[in-house]
Design goal:
558 residues; 8-stranded parallel beta barrel; Immunoglobulin-like; 10 helices; alpha/beta; 9-stranded mixed beta sheet; 3 domains; 23% helix
């Protein structure tokens, strides 16, 4: 009996030291949200600093290295310092401020340059101009204001002019003027940069009086203002989408998102038809970062997307982030929770510069988010992915035959995993990328045996890209990187840049059916600009041939 017990005890010890392979079940037929994109706020330098505010290397780091495809910026309140006239249907542009030295005009060069790489531009309003606001309710005025100087503390009436950027509410008699103001901004951005603003938020964090440029827009007036603004945009033929209300990312708090949802979707006179993406912020109070929870995101998803059919976005988080591995790991986990349980379509970090990008190098947080940003591209669909191991946090995404799986090992021990796609065919190999204490978003190479090592406290991204169905196809040029931009062509110019040790020999512009529309041969170049003038609007494929291979990319001539 003693001998039998000893054998069982030794067997238990041996089994406890064995690392079993965890099976990850992926169901490609169970689809959730389609990804719109990931991104962040701002240029390399703040607008009140000295120019230049960005450089091409910063843009390349944000877009090509990190994978940003959404950039959020701010519509500054001094765009219209005084009412242009008393008619909201007649605009006097001479009264507007959008020159190169204005707070908005300083941004135009950055907007143009980063949009040229196919990035969506979204804009949030922190506050309407002070002349549109009412300050009679002290509950709408914060005790202090971070962005003005010599402000009385505590404040008292009359409020100094430099204090009026903080707090107050949009006057009911100014709704039409506010619509005119927003229309003017969108049109001027287009005229100055050639960029169509993708999305607009009519009021950032509208529920309470923030101690910076801010205004209060409670649920009922928010819904009414959105209706007025949306009607005006429709009348003007503008296609800009609306996202909001950009309140904190929690549904059960009162007051909070529940009241905004009720006003937007249950009141027949509201602007519900104009809200394209319901967006929240990842903070507890507008300042302290909130990394979210499965329960919190599930509540938002069920009460907004499921109940009212509106996709969820998270449009700001990441205030004052220290450059540590732990912070990066927390934000990767936060993205997992939002994507897995909130089924968000868009995720937008706060200030890229200093938080995700330091100089022109990714921080720990930037490197961690890269494991989502760079490989889960717009148009990918979130699909079901599960494991019996509670330490493995998994999401998966598909587009055509392409497959991306992001696995966070939140446990304290290393694990090995295999993928099971059920009846679907398993790709024959995956490219593997890793975020860990020593590997900040680096490529680990190709795995072809369906056995993936997952060290503790790591983020691992598995990527299979079917070259036959990808927008970018062909043989990757050895030790070189090919960059073709913009992919959305507005100004008849497409730039082609090849870094590394090979040169472009031939470049073809082909229609989707394969016919060659333009051909350039005998080039021997690293860089060139193609003029697309004379080509019909629509989709084309640019094929670049070098001595080491061919690479293709789709462009859309507008």
């Amino acid at each position: 009996m003693k001998n039998k017990f000893t054998k069982l005890f030794l067997l238990a010890i041996l089994l406890s030291n064995t690392i079993f392979s965890q099976e990850i079940q992926i169901n490609k037929s169970k689809e959730y949200q389609t990804i719109d994109g990931f991104g962040g706020f701002g240029a390399k330098k703040v607008w009140w600093d000295s120019p230049p505010f960005h450089d091409q290397e910063y843009i390349n780091t944000a877009v090509d290295v990190m994978g940003c495809n959404i950039i959020r910026t701010q519509l500054y309140f001094d765009f219209e310092p005084a009412n242009d006239n008393n008619d909201p249907n007649v605009l006097d542009e001479s009264k507007l401020r959008f020159g190169t030295t204005s707070d908005n005009g300083k941004q135009f060069s950055f907007i143009k340059d980063i949009a040229a790489k196919g990035v969506k531009i979204i804009v949030s309003v922190w506050t309407p101009p002070s002349w549109m606001k009412d300050f009679s309710d002290p509950k709408t005025i914060p005790d202090e204001c971070y962005n003005c100087w010599n402000c009385p503390k505590p404040w008292s009436y009359p409020i100094p002019e430099n204090r009026k950027m903080c707090g107050g509410v949009l006057r009911t008699d100014m709704y039409e003027e506010y619509a005119e103001y927003l229309v003017a901004y969108i049109k001027i951005v287009k005229r100055q940069t050639g960029v169509d603003v993708y999305g607009l938020s009519i009021q950032n964090e509208p529920l309470f009086a923030n101690p910076f440029e801010a205004a209060v827009l409670k649920p009922e007036p928010y819904a009414k203002v959105l209706k007025v603004v949306g009607d005006r945009f429709k009348k003007e033929g503008l296609t800009t989408k609306f996202f909001g209300p950009e309140h904190m990312g929690e549904y059960t708090w009162v007051p909070g998102n529940k009241e905004y949802v009720n006003q937007l979707f249950k009141v027949t006179t509201s602007g519900k038809e104009y809200l394209d993406m319901y967006s929240v912020h990842g903070y507890l109070d507008g300042v302290a970062n909130d990394f979210g929870s499965a329960e919190g995101w599930t509540n938002l998803y069920n009460n907004i997307t499921v109940a009212h059919g509106k996709p969820l976005w998270m449009t700001e988080t990441g205030n004052q982030v220290p450059n540590t591995f732990d912070q990066g790991f927390k934000f990767a986990t936060a993205m997992h929770l939002a994507l897995k349980f909130g089924h968000i379509s868009g995720w937008v970090f706060w200030g890229l510069a200093g938080n995700a990008i330091n100089g022109n190098t990714l921080t720990n947080t930037g490197a961690a988010m890269k494991l989502f940003y760079k490989y889960i591209k717009p148009g990918y669909i979130n699909i079901e992915a599960t494991s019996t191991d509670k330490d493995l946090l998994i999401t998966a995404y598909k587009k055509d035959n392409n497959l991306v799986v992001v696995i966070i090992n939140n446990g304290t021990s290393s694990k090995t995993a295999q993928l099971n796609l059920g009846s679907a065919a398993l790709p024959n190999s995956f490219e593997v990328y890793r975020y860990s204490q020593t590997q900040l978003g680096v490529a680990l190479g190709t795995v072809s045996n369906n056995s993936f090592n997952l060290p503790s406290k790591t983020v691992t991204t598995l990527v299979y890209e079917d070259k036959a169905t990808s927008n970018e196809s062909g043989i990757e040029v050895s030790n070189s990187q090919l960059n073709i931009y913009p992919t959305e062509v507005y100004f008849n110019e497409v730039n082609i840049e090849l870094s590394g040790n090979s040169k472009m020999e031939n470049v073809d512009i082909c229609s989707i059916d394969g016919r060659i529309a333009r051909n350039y041969t005998g080039l021997n170049l690293n860089k060139m600009t193609i003029n697309t003038e004379g080509l019909s609007k629509g989709m084309y494929i640019i094929k670049v041939t070098t001595s080491q291979g061919v690479k293709s990319k789709k462009i859309n001539i507008q």
